[in-house]
Design goal:
By secondary structure, the protein is α+β, with helices and mostly antiparallel strands. The chain has helices spanning 39-43, 46-58, 102-114, 196-208; strands at 2-8, 11-19, 82-89, 92-98, 118-123, 126-131, 134-140, 146-152, 174-181, 186-192, 212-213, 217-218, 224-232. It folds into 2 domains: 2-20 and 155-232; 62-152, Gyrase A, domain 2. The radius of gyration is 19 Å and the shape is elongated.
Length: 233
């Protein structure tokens, strides 16, 4: 989930962008104080990052056992298939498999949901899931090849020092990014692990505190929505 706050003249304008089921990958360099303008580039580079990670994985030695000790306890083993290789790069774990059927993936989605993951279809031949600070992307093909890509985000604190004193804290989810661009008055906050209900309740709280704006806008085919709110400063 990404939250953008812009301060201009006598009005305080807030643009909230909520990713509902699975959020785009955040770069490890995107910590507090980093340039928020880079966030769009990061969000658009997931496909390239996957390819780079797969290339790096191919350069490592072969590991053909499920890497249980490298994964969170909540991530079940995909048993109906053959592990070809896996590797760890920073906070990412990549697993390549073969001989995995679509029926096996459907069953695996159910196992993830049973363990508390929020699962959605990420597009053509892709499954996405989030759990706590983890994001899992599963790319598959009809030939039975599967690549699981697990990312763990770092957690930071709510950036009260970057916001107005009366700005309410978002209590759901975990803050993964918080920074401010003083040149354009932009505060950027990235949050993982919140539901649509959490986001809508937060909007209700903001409106009770004097914010006004339009109804949420959902982009067709997307798993996110945004809303613009304003308040006299």
């Amino acid at each position: 989930m990404k939250t953008f706050t812009r301060f201009i003249s006598a009005l305080l304008v807030l643009l909230l962008v909520f990713s509902l089921a699975a959020c785009s990958k955040a770069d490890n360099s995107e910590k507090e104080g980093s340039d928020p303008k880079d966030s769009g580039t990061v969000a658009n580079d997931v496909e390239g990052a996957l390819k780079d990670a797969e290339t790096a994985l191919d350069s490592l030695g072969k590991n053909d056992e499920w890497p249980k000790d490298k994964l969170p306890d909540a991530m079940p083993e995909l048993t109906k298939g053959k592990v070809i290789n896996w590797g760890v790069t920073g906070e990412e774990v990549i697993i390549k498999m073969e001989e995995v059927t679509e029926e096996a993936l459907t069953e695996y989605k159910g196992q993830l949901e049973g363990n508390g993951w929020r699962v959605s279809d990420g597009g053509s031949e892709e499954i996405k899931a989030t759990y706590d600070l983890y994001e899992l992307s599963i790319k598959y093909s009809k030939s039975g090849s599967v690549q699981l890509w697990l990312v763990k985000y770092a957690e930071t604190s709510w950036p009260a020092n970057l916001l107005p004193a009366d700005f309410p804290k978002f209590e759901k989810g975990k803050v993964t990014t918080a920074n401010k661009d003083d040149d354009i008055g932009l505060v950027y906050i990235g949050i993982e692990g919140a539901s649509m209900e959490d986001a809508l309740e937060y909007m209700r709280v903001l409106k009770q505190k004097g914010w006004t704006g339009d109804e949420p806008i959902m982009e067709e085919g997307q798993k996110s929505f945004y809303v613009q709110l304003v308040k006299d400063n």
